[in-house]
Structures
1.
Amino acid sequence: MIKALLFDVFGTCVDWRSAIAREVAAVLPEVDALAFADAWRGEYDPAMARIREGGRGYVALDDLHRENLHRVAERFGVIAPDALSHAWERLDPWPDTVAGLSALKRQRIIAPCSNGSIALMTRLARHAGLPWDCVLGADIARDYKPKPEVYLASCAALRLPPEAVMMVAAHNGDLAAARALGLKTAFVPRLTEYGPDQRSDLGPEADWDVIAPDFLSLAQRLADGR
């Protein structure tokens, strides 16, 4: 029986692209804000990969975002203030997110299993109204998804075996990593996470335990035992 739900956050719960572009436009009006947002996000995985692969000790995502901000700003020929890196704490939820999470919270424990730090996830939850029971993820494991330690540390923090926990994500790779460790899986697509020309994660790439169009549908299916 599923006792807890863990959630990917960036892209699955919140629309990072629109919010980041909005903040970039306010601070750096001379650049293409959407292109800047995409480039900034493009540095996300390479920065974490250096840590996952052992080339660098654990560095919280807050700091990686700031480093990546300046790397991208240099590429665009502008100077970005450090404060812009806090834009990742002010992302907007998808329309179904808050109501869906609230419905799911009435059934089970809910928590993020994100690459964001506890500080970042806490401030983002306050901004976006995400009703987590607690905050788990990278800071607990001191590593980054999809490393097994991140999922397992989150389960261990709840004192639950992996088979009693479901990972919810809009990214097939995240779910594949969780399933390999024994977690249940739920796929909720976010078809415009990367904008209107998105090419990846447009549908399920495996027979995930639950496939739902949004969080409210996920809550209903879990309530119905489907």
2.
Amino acid sequence: MASRRRMLLKLIILGDSGVGKTSLMNQYVNRKFSNQYKATIGADFLTKEVQFEDRLFTLQIWDTAGQERFQSLGVAFYRGADCCVLVYDVNVTKSFDDLNNWREEFLIQASPSDPETFPFVVLGNKVDVGGGNSRVVSEKKAKAWCASKGNIPYFETSAKEGFNVDAAFECITKNALKNEPEEEMRITTIFLGLLIVCLPALVFIMTKDTFLKQLMLPGEDGHRDRQVASVELLDGALFIRVQKQLLL
């Protein structure tokens, strides 16, 4: 009899700032899209329950910042990942050229047991922009790069229109299942990751007045944004959720 116990799969989304990582995640999980751009601070995640081959899974999708000043957080957020999603903007050459750097950085920080077989999926996003006339990275070029890295699955997507988003995440889930670790190992990994991620939050709470000023960032409209950490309980494991709050 097939197991109906819900399992956890951790997905990491990487790519340059502005390629649509947050929009892809929100389109897949919430069926929502916003034209208003706000850079992710540190990392955030959403969860979605899916059923595959009579098994229930909770996808924990981590949306990470594309700015260099946040890359030092990589170890805490990358460890324990079951699949890494590399995203670029088909209209921006640099975002495609940087895919190799993101892939190598992930392999260094996450330290998977078998780097050669760890599952990646590449998404060429924003194919809707300009009716497709403004793209500078061809599908042929992208597929050639994916083939050179061990035949990484490739999808062209539009977070705005929802084009190919579900199909891409279905493939991502299937690839994540191939990397699913033993439960005991997963619990250990989550626990260690929790210690790494929670330590700054605990320091923040203990020295709130001191750190608050350092975490205030200028917003697009002249207001100030604050990075806020909250804790979420999921299947007996704790996870940190990092968000921005607007300070008027």
3.
Amino acid sequence: MPIEFALPDADACPVHVLSPDQVDAWADSQSDRVRAWVTANGFSAGIGSSLAIPSEDGTAAAVLIGYGTKAQRRRGRFALAAAVPGLPAGTYRIASGLPDAAQAEEALGWLLTGYAFARYRDRKPAQARLVAPDGIDADRLQIYAAAEARIRDLINTPASDMGPTALEEAARSLATEFGATICVTVGKALLAQNFPMIHAVGRAADDDPRLIDIRWGDTGPSLTLVGKGVCFDTGGLNLKPGSSMALMKKDMGGAANVLGLAHMIMALNLPIRLRVLIPAVENAVSGNSFRPGDILTSRKGLTVEINNTDAEGRLVLADALAHADEEMPDFLISMATLTGAARVAVGPDLAPFFTDDDDVAQALADSAPRMADPVWRLPFHTPYEAMIEPGIADLDNAPGGGMAGSITAALFLRRFVEATPRYAHFDIYGWNPSNAPARPKGGVGQGPRAILDALPQVLGL
């Protein structure tokens, strides 16, 4: 089923959205038959509940969907979508009860129930389609949903079908769709063009490392997105245990998220000059793997001591960030599934971000709840800089001690961004560990909608 709204239909089944304290009043306003039906079925309007109201011929004349209490809705998002998978296939319209302020979020949530990852087996998404409520920007919400589906598909695809070459193909497909240009530097050409750390991390894999460079737009302020594209992370010679390796197909979640964000920017034709950089590698194990104790010289000229080959994401990002910084874009963003420490700090549902710019932070904080895309600011705590300085080289890719792991990783990346006036780094998880309304277990976008909504304020659009 396409992830889009149904066309307006006079026969669409009306939906009445009710909170628990509204059920009795609604039932009392109906016929005796309907009131008796609601009472007999014990409909209490909890989140995820629904009740079809039969007509005289037995078809559904209307559907009640529970919206829960305000306290219950605060514990999640897309409350309306919780009931959608349980509705019969058909077309529906919101007839009453959904607050105007919630229309866009809940309509987006309904759209996202139309997603299912069906590449390897037949999986059916929810079959209940919604007519776009009056007063919302339906086209914009459909763009959000299409971008989210792109992110989920990329992350959900295993490394057997989503290595660096396949990720390049996905980027090329996006570029072609929106008339962007793309340039890709592959294999030993990375050394010739001075991307030594991208090459070092990916050289052990059969699928060559590469740097993907997409450009779109020729007017307006400049925005560069850098996404970590580690298509699978064994940990390298510091091999991960099996339990830690199981989800490493998602280690290109940063790349997927920046491609999803780029999708929205281009589809909405925002007046900016967009650039997307993705270092795409597989951190594999072979005789020519980079080693603990090696010292690598980055594109920027900073030397990096390798104290753990499983801290590879910051290495490939560093070369890409240094390259981006040479152009001094008006705003530079990196997104990466970078550290387990971020998960310990904020869990899987929040996307922590770092920035030295309070205006950027405030814009993101304002946009996140509006876009149902939660983010949370963590500090670039400069006193911790000493933790990433090993002495034998300029930088340490994996400081010991286990303290402040997400912050030290962010500080490491910041060393490669000097000329750009505004920089933000997102340390995302990119994975929903269990089913939730509109967000099935699996790959997920974290941060793109909040960033998109904040761009007009940050870039003065």
4.
Amino acid sequence: MAIATTDPSTGETIRTFDPLTEDQLGMRIIASSHAFTHWRDTPMDRRAALFRDLAALLDEEAEELGRIATQEVGKTLASAVAEVHKCAKGCRYYADNAEAMLADQPHDVPGARVVTRYEPLGPVLAVMPWNFPYWQVFRFAAPALMAGNTGLLKHASNVPQCALAIEDAFVRAGFPEKVFQTLLVGSSEIERIIGDDRVRAVTLTGSEAAGRAVAAAAGKEIKTSVLELGGSDPFVVMPSADLDEAVRNAVASRTLNNGQSCINAKRFIVHTDIADEFTRRLGEAMAALTVGDPRDEDTDVGPLSSGDAVKTLDQQVRDTVAAGATLVTGGEPGGGPGFYYPPTVLADIPDGSPAHREELFGPVASVWRARDLDDAIRIANDSTFGLGGSVWTTDPDEQQRLVRGIETGMIYVNRMTESTPEVPFGGTKNSGYGRELAQFGPRTFVNAKTVWIEGG
């Protein structure tokens, strides 16, 4: 895949970039290793001050950075600007809290002073996706660099300007040279980078196939890895739920980032007593959304990331309908220019169809009918994924049974799933392993060293 900016709203390639040569890549890895020897000894309060300066820069330039993201991935300008501000929030959160999270942890051992120290590992490779081109990077970089590691970013090939802008922001905020670097390389270089002795760990957010490849490469080298992969999140609605609120959040979650988010609600599992009403309301609300230029403030849903993304989603929908699903609304991609797909609702999902087994990465909602609570849990767990999920009920017993029964890394009750610095983020099953954010962020890429001082 070429390293290039292609505007999804028009299909026009705006700019292309030459990948790093083998020598250039090698020099950047060496530089990251050298930078680590100094950065690891930088006092925590100095690291925190730099991240506060970076946060201020991001807030000040959010509009400009947001326009770059809109041009490269087609997200609405309002959501792109909000994403940059979210990155600033993450920088401040770890500037304020990482030192306490990484403080020595004492253990009660008679006659000795025993603590666990959290020491940084070294250069960490981050293989990041295009859909949240800033937040995905900062939710790794802020905690990992506050812990004393250095960062090497291999971003998606369709967001080179976002990737370079992130590196530039670190530099202009005053971070020491080479503490954070962007690597403009293709995915074929990832295994070689992981294999370099100087690179000590890797984190990936992306597809299940990419996760398997990175996990295999990291396992071969015995290096720490974190994977955040796909999701087909359940959204369970029971009769006691506030139906207006459930439908409003269903639409907001499914169309977040034009429907291209791992934690979008994708499978709507509704008790049979309210299934017809919910499906009708959901279809009407999705059909009423405005699809158009992501720079237009009246646009609700912009384009998908590429022409291939439209083709894949369209085929998944067509195959699901051919298998027996009901098309409630949508289902016909735009004729162009641009990579548009309409908000779509499918119901009566057949077993084995794409909507049943695959992640639909676009504004397509799939509705299941559940006989009772146990059936809702069964349907929710009938997936190879287990990233997040949300449940809508005001019955305390139902809430607890759903929380215990649904197999996900995250479950939200009467609230749509989200990613925020204060809360751990990650999945189970084929959605990956490891956790990001909260206290897990700074403690992921560290050596938890036991120190025993006899008689201390």
